[in-house]
Amino acid sequence: MTKEIRKICGGMLTGLALCFSVSSILANAEEPAGESTVADPCAVPDGSVLNIASVSKMYVTAAVMQLVDAGKVKLDAPVTDYILDFQMADERYKDITVRMLLNHSSGLMGSSYEGAFLFEEKSSDYHDTFLQKLKRQHLKADPGAFNCYCNDGFTLLEILVERVSGLSFTEYIKENISAPLSLDHTGTLWDTDLDRLIPVYINGNVKLKPAVPQLIATGGIMSDAEDVCRFGTAFFTGNDILFSEEAKCEMSENNNTDGSQPAFGLGWDNVEKEDYKNVGVKVLSKGGDAMQHANLLVAPDQKISVAVLSSGGSSSNCEEICLDLLDVALSGQGIDIVHPEKDKPELIPVPDEFAGFEGLYANTEKTMSISFPDKQYMLARSVTSENEFETQFMYAADGTFVEVSGDVSSGKAIPVQPLNAYMFEEKNGQMYLSHPEMGGMLIKVEGKQVDESVQKAWDQRNGAYYYLVNASASDTSYTDNNRMKMCTSVEAPGMVNGYVMQDEDHAVYEKLIPGTASRDISDLRMEIADGKEYACLDDLGFRLISEKDIPVFTDDVTEVALKSGEASWFKIDGAKDVTLRLDVPENAAVYVYDKYMNIKYSSYMIGYGTGVPLPEYGMIVFIGESGSTVNVGR
Questions:
Q1: What is the second-level CATH architecture of the domain 2-331?
Q2: pTM value?
Q3: Closest CA to 478 of 411, 401, 569
Q4: Which of 227, 247, 226 is nearest to 235 (CA)?
Q5: What is the distance between the alpha carbons of residues 201 and 311, in angstroms, rounded to a whole number?
Q6: CATH topology assigned to domain 550-633
């Protein structure tokens, strides 16, 4: 099998550290089951581990199902039966069941990101304050109404396991999952030597110190590919080492509630992969993306488990390799999987009925315009979006709109590869623009006439960026979730990005999209403090300062006094041949970004020298605790 594996991974490894493992029962296996292979553009030292991101959710799912088997938890019982101090500012929370947390239909707002991932730091704060954060939140939907991927539900399950078992979640995993399966390289921040963590790779070649996940059950398990692969064997048909056959069947049932997601199981992202289902092979899959990435595939009846982990890349890359490896393993059992190439779409004129679908479509990030010029094609155009775009789609005979490039009017437009297709769907009186595999992506909205003073207040913010200030120095949010742009337009009155204005300082997301598009949402609140304006996304845990209140980083800045919970941002405007010498105290950090917000320097970079060259234009931020100072030399 080695030659096939090398062929699969060839050309896919540039700029990342990747390891994979395949465990299978093969009649004519060339190599023993439990094979673990490390593909090396960036060597992964023996004993190293990676964060497996959201594949961690399968470990808390396993824990819950063990408690179900033991009669200590009932899937359809209210969560409040097990977590007595679980409360929300919304009486509907009492209707949330354990099953709803496991199949992403609880109606929780989504994700609490503040302090979720920290560089080289472990803390109990995220865990200890989680229930208090939920007390301030409302639900975005009735419990059980639809599936919508939800991180916070699995942190709630972590607490449930602790309350029912009387053990910390780390202890529970160690005693009830790792020990029975001999997972010697699996753990959490509390029982893993953090020196074993692989560094983080971002932007292709930027290497940062290891990130420590604090939200354990949601995305905080650390492991290697062989251990994850061995964990997957617990789901094999006939293997009762962790839980009963009934529990495994329950987990692998399609828990789709209203067509919003194709095939959520309990914990699993997908329990019905079409090409495999067509030949009678059930495949269960779970992916995860955080600062590192992972994918686990299990074919329970064929007793095949495949795991791929990477630092750099994405879980989609990991899954692509997993599927190819799975095909090799299935072939060894005489099962050949056919992946039909998608037929070239037959493009035809836009039918007359679509004229009524013209208008504004929105999600939390943007509002865009849909039109059908001369009934030749569909034009999707940005209205309130951080990035401007105009994208053409032609109508295909299968009822989808396919993205094309080229001149439509000349008849020379061709489909973009890989194919990118959308369709219109009407449900419960709402019109959605949906993806065939991912469900609803945008919902049709109407502009809303608001008081002139309200529109003016938001229009004055149009085009302005707001930068993250409330995360700690070690918080990884400064690597990516570090700013947002306010966007309004005369074409979408009463709208800011995808939110609906309520007054001069509040905007809400009024229309939900069943599926991933409404995954992590929060109302938008503006506030003035110490004469500065901030945008607050309270449910996500983000507070951001307006760029108009950010000073320019001038030559006379020789020191920056730090303030807890208030990062100090500066604009880099016209710097030429400037190199800084930074004296950064402990529990502090500095980031430098170019004008595109690509990281050019971070205190957490590995192998960086003492001098920090500034880009001509960009941003620099100083983060730390009150009483500390960063000294700046040139």
A1: 3-Layer(aba) Sandwich (3.40)
A2: 0.91
A3: 569
A4: 247
A5: 6
A6: Jelly Rolls (2.60.120)
**What's the pLDDT tens digit per position in 567-626?**
999 999 999 999 999 999 999 999 999 999 999 999 999 988 789 999 999 999 999 999
Contact call for residues 328 and 38 (beta carbons, < 8 A): no
One-letter amino acid for residue 524 of the chain? L
- Per the DSSP assignment, residues forming a β-bridge with 391 are 380
Give me 12's structure tokens. 């896919």
Q: What is the pLDDT of residues 438-456, one digit of tens each?
A: 777 899 999 889 999 999 9
pLDDT for residue 346 is more than 70: yes
Task: Tell me if domain 2-331 and domain 550-633 are identical in fold.
Answer: no
Round to whole Å and give the CA distance between 401 and 405: 13
303-315 residue pLDDT tens: 999 999 999 889 9
Q: How far apart are CA 16 and CA 338, in angstroms?
A: 29
Cα torsion 434, 437, 438, 439: sign: positive
Q: What is the pLDDT of residue 343?
A: 75
Cis ω before 418 (30° cut-off from 0): yes
- Determine the angle formed by the axes of helices 315-331 and 2-9, rounding to 10 degrees: 150
Q: What is the number of helices (H) and of strands (E) in the chain?
A: 13, 37
**What is the residue extent of each domain of the chain?**
2-331, 347-434, 452-545, 550-633
Determine how β-strand 542-546 pairs with β-strand 401-405. Answer: unpaired
First to last CA, the chain: 57
Is 544's pLDDT higher than 70?
yes
Q: How does DSSP classify residue 28?
A: T
DSSP structural state of residue 350: P
Between the alpha carbon of residue 602 and those of residues 119, 446, 455, 473, the distances in Å are 11, 43, 39, 11
Averaged pLDDT, 240-247: 96
Answer whether 16's CB lies under 8 Å from 312's CB: yes
